[in-house]
From TrEMBL:
Record organism: Microbacterium lemovicicum
InterPro entries in UniProt: NTF2-like_dom_sf, YchJ-like_M
Domain YchJ-like middle NTF2-like positions: 1-89
Organism lineage: Bacteria, Bacillati, Actinomycetota, Actinomycetes, Micrococcales
Domain of life (superkingdom): Bacteria
Protein name: YchJ-like middle NTF2-like domain-containing protein
Any Pfam family: YchJ_M-like
Coiled-coil regions listed in the entry: none
Amino acid sequence: MRSRYSAFVRGDSAYLRDTWHPGTRPDVLDVDDGTRWQGLEILSAEGGSGDRRGRVEFRARWRDGAKSGVLHERSRFVFQSGRWWYLDGVVD
């Protein structure tokens, strides 16, 4: 999760695409250049070493010009082919 957040901060859409599960990733992934990510807070994490599925709940603060806010998401991950993949997330 932290590496995906860092990719959003850097605007690295190639990394985000490479970490998104091929079965759920969108055909086009646009990263908004105007959004400035200002911090990540992991609220909870389930799964990890030895597990096949995981969940991460987080808040990420952002700013876009005069607007600012918080993205609150519950993300799902799956461990396949020796690595973790982002499946999807529910945004509150």
